[in-house]
């Protein structure tokens, strides 16, 4: 079909195709690893195989785009920002942990499928530097504490740091020995600990 398109449509079409290809490729990578073929990707995306190479110069570039999309913190940060601030602190933190666990489960699954032990350097894959992402997640969790900061014995930033450590170690399949911690367990450790001397009435809830 030779219907003329506006300049704007032509500019947007490649980006739309890029997103569609990345979205179609991710589940295939989780299933087949780096061995996934461009033919499989094209079939999943509903396009001709040559379409892939009109957007990406080679398969490796597509794989880098998939990895970058999985590591992009934007969607997770938006979810953290959308947590209902009217909820009690404990419920807000449980929601935050569930959001962070969902992200990490996806990242761990992708890295495992690709046979990688850690995310690629940001020079190799276009994603924010780890320190930048860590700062953003700490700030987002600290923001969730809000006015309940006065009930804590540590600054919200310290609580956010410890929460992220618990989420990472309690979610990583090798670190947790196949027994991941639930969001409720992580928040209980964070706010209550395991001591018999803890009095539930003294904890923000």
Properties at a glance:
205 residues, 2 domains, Tetracycline Repressor, domain 2, disordered N terminus, Arc Repressor Mutant, subunit A, elongated, mainly alpha, 9 helices
What would your notes on this structure say?
This protein is mainly alpha-helical and 205 residues long. The chain folds into 2 domains: 7-69, Orthogonal Bundle (Arc Repressor Mutant, subunit A); 72-202, Tetracycline Repressor, domain 2 (Orthogonal Bundle). The protein contains 9 helices and no strands. The longest helix is centred in the N-terminal third of the chain and has 26 residues, at 7-32. The radius of gyration is 21 Å and the shape is elongated. 22% of the residues are buried.
Strand percentage: under 5%
User: Can you tell me the CATH topology of the largest domain?
Assistant: Tetracycline Repressor, domain 2
Give a short account of the largest sheet: none
Instruction: Give the integer mean of the pLDDT values.
Output: 86
The global form is: elongated
Summarize the model shown.
Helices cover 63% and strands 0% of the residues.
């Amino acid at each position: 079909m030779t219907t003329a398109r506006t300049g704007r449509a032509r500019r947007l079409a490649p980006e739309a195709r890029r997103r569609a290809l990345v979205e179609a490729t991710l589940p295939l990578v989780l299933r087949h690893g780096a061995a996934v073929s461009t033919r499989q990707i094209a079939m999943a995306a509903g396009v001709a195989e040559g379409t892939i190479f009109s957007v990406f110069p080679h398969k490796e570039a597509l794989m880098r785009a998939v990895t970058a999309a999985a590591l992009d913190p934007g969607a997770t940060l938006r979810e953290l920002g959308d947590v209902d601030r009217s909820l009690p602190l404990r419920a807000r933190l449980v929601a935050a942990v569930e959001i962070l666990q969902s992200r990490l489960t996806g990242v761990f699954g992708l890295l495992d499928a690709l046979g990688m032990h850690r995310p690629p350097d940001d020079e190799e894959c276009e994603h924010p530097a780890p320190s930048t992402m860590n700062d953003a997640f700490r700030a987002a969790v600290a923001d969730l504490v809000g006015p309940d900061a006065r009930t804590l014995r540590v600054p919200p930033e310290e609580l956010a740091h410890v929460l992220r450590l618990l989420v990472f170690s309690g979610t990583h399949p090798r670190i947790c020995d196949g027994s991941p911690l639930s969001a409720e367990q992580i928040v209980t450790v964070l706010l209550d600990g395991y001591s018999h001397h803890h009095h539930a009435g003294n904890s923000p809830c």
